[in-house]
Write a structure and sequence with these properties.
This protein has 435 residues and is α/β, with parallel strands linked by helices. It has a single domain (38-220, 235-261, 291-434), classed as SGNH hydrolase (Rossmann fold). It has helices at residues 5-9, 17-36, 58-64, 75-81, 149-155, 167-180, 242-245, 292-308, 353-369, 383-387, 421-434, and strands at residues 2-4, 97-101, 135-139, 160-165, 187-188, 197-202, 207-213, 218-222, 233-240, 253-256, 266-270, 273-278, 312-316, 345-347, 376-380. The strands form four sheets. It has a seven-stranded mixed beta sheet, with helices on both faces. Strands 8-9-11-12 form a four-stranded mixed beta sheet. It is globular, with a radius of gyration of 20 Å. The chain starts with a strand and ends with a helix. Bound molecules: 2-acetamido-2-deoxy-beta-D-glucopyranose (8 copies).
Length: 435
């Protein structure tokens, strides 16, 4: 189904969730498990505990996207309510704009940067086109400067920054490591071999950068800890994931994000008891509506930030995927080689309800956060920009072409170099605004 971009953002009610749930458990779950168990998606820098893809079924999520057409926080309203101040970069709305050609990019490649992970090293695996690297984001009201690594490092001298989230969060960290690699290669000072928690020190600047793995953001355990193949998780929706929440009081900057993992089978706990589940197929367990868990988990993690953090916290909004021609497990692919223009008709993108929830929870938390000295909670609303970048994903170039994975293409993560580098342009710009 083709819809104009903005129609996508103002969705209308669709199929009943229960129907989708039944369809999901009958047809999708087995496929989901097989993808999860598939070593092709092995992410080389994650530990065995945490590795995995971000499966989100396109068709499924299309059905399950419950609409919010009456929700004032849709992407569209931000563009009309925006106060646009031309020639004032610092106060410009960075999140509405167009992608425009940039002959100067890319600013690094797989020989100059050490930090590109295999699955996002699209050129290594033979991606034939390079045009996807040659765009920059142009907000309507101003120019967004390209990331200046020297300027960034000067700004964060003696400070520390952490990223919390899933493999897309890690994707952004690797982009940042690459952008900074033109100035300095950091020392790995991670305190344990656990690849899910990495710490680097830019010693010339005494700047530390941390990547903290927490795809569900809240306390999570495996339903069967003895089974390494177990991909049913227990989510404690009202309990912090202390692996990251215990770290953040030492940080000056925090970038948090999540979303894709919440379409997996999970059992929810609240008040220390099972409150329901999602695609778990357990008897006598309430199937809770989709997005129930996401909203609660996000709310809990924003609360952790309000309680324990007193720097600049950035909630990075949902990163859309671009499967076309089928769901992720049925041959869906992303073969486009150009960004969309804003006025173009684009295929419907699944899972945007996550974005609505982020805006709602962000607003509630930001209001709360204003009362706290030092804390600044900001939204990095890159969803709309990324909706326009179907060309930026690895697709079939996230792995060796000899591997028989014709059915599985990665239209979720982003090639490096690629459009995700823009997130760091925006991050630096937001930091400058706050200084
Ligand atoms: C990477 O960039 C360097 C410096 O611009 C260039 O010399 C080199 O050929 C590039 N390598 C690849 C594989 O594109
Ligand atoms: C880098 O990309 C080139 C293609 O542009 C590829 O031939 C090469 O193997 C890649 N190198 C690394 C180290 O990934
Ligand atoms: C490095 O920064 C930390 C704070 O992040 C500070 O406590 C420490 O004194 C700094 N070290 C030097 C050598 O400047
Ligand atoms: C980072 O490196 C600087 C310079 O060597 C050092 O003073 C600082 O203690 C290091 N920071 C950490 C957290 O190890
Ligand atoms: C958990 O559920 C049990 C049985 O339904 C109940 O007795 C117990 O009080 C509950 N625990 C909490 C902490 O609510
Ligand atoms: C489910 O609940 C029913 C009614 O309370 C009970 O008879 C049945 O044993 C329960 N099944 C399981 C597996 O707990
Ligand atoms: C979109 O805008 C571009 C540039 O303004 C224009 O060339 C193109 O025809 C427009 N496309 C549609 C579908 O309106
Ligand atoms: C690759 O997988 C497809 C789908 O499972 C199968 O039809 C095909 O025979 C496989 N090709 C090879 C070379 O194994």
């Amino acid at each position: 189904m083709e819809l104009p971009l903005f129609a996508v953002l103002q969705r209308t009610p669709r199929v009943a969730v229960t129907v989708s749930l039944v369809l999901f458990s009958l047809t999708i779950v087995p496929a989901l498990y097989s993808l999860l168990a598939n070593p092709i998606f092995h992410l080389s820098i994650s530990s065995s505990e945490t590795e995995g893809p971000l499966p989100s079924d396109h068709m499924l999520l299309n059905h399950m996207n419950s609409p919010s057409s009456d929700d004032p926080s849709s992407l569209v309203t931000t563009s009309t309510s925006r106060t646009q101040i031309r020639d004032d970069e610092l106060r410009c709305d960075l999140f509405n704009g167009e992608w425009i050609p940039n002959d100067e990019s890319p600013y690094y490649n797989n020989t100059t940067c050490w930090a590109i992970q295999e699955h996002q090293n699209c050129m290594k695996f033979g991606r034939p086109d390079t045009g996807f690297m040659r765009w920059r984001w142009k907000p309507d009201g101003c120019d967004l400067p390209i990331f200046d690594p020297q300027e960034f490092l000067e700004m964060v001298r003696g400070e520390s920054m952490g990223f919390v989230g899933d493999s897309i969060s890690r994707n952004q960290v690797q982009s940042l490591l690459c952008l900074l690699s033109r100035v300095e290669i950091p020392q790995d000072i991670s305190s344990s071999p656990d690849k899910a928690f990495k710490v680097w020190n830019y010693t010339s600047y005494n700047f530390t950068l941390q990547a903290m793995w927490s795809p569900f953001l809240v306390k999570t355990t495996k339903a069967d800890p003895t089974d390494p193949e177990c991909y049913l998780f227990n989510l404690y929706l009202d309990e912090y994931d202390t692996k990251w929440t215990s770290q953040i009081n030492q940080l000056d900057y925090l970038v948090i994000s999540s979303g894709h993992w919440f379409s997996r089978p999970v059992i929810f706990y609240e008040n220390e008891n099972i409150s329901g589940c999602q695609y778990c197929g357990l008897p006598n367990t309430t199937q809770l509506p989709s997005y129930y868990g996401y909203r609660k988990a996000l709310r809990t993690s924003l609360r952790a930030i309000l309680e324990n953090f007193k720097g600049l916290a950035v909630l990075r909004s949902f990163s859309p995927h671009h499967f076309e021609g089928g769901p992720w497990d049925k041959g869906g692919d992303c073969v486009r080689t150009r960004p969309y223009r804003r006025n173009e008709t684009i295929p419907e993108v699944a899972d945007l309800k996550n974005h609505d929830i982020q805006l709602e929870e962000f607003r509630a938390a930001a209001e709360e956060g204003m009362k706290k000295m030092g804390l600044r909670l900001r939204l990095m609303d890159t969803t709309q920009a990324m909706l326009l970048r179907p060309d930026g994903h690895p697709g079939r170039y996230g792995h060796l072409q000899t591997t028989n994975v014709s059915l599985r293409n990665d239209c979720i993560h982003w090639c490096l170099p690629g459009p995700i580098d823009t997130w760091n342009d925006i991050l630096l710009q937001m930091m400058k605004t706050e200084k």
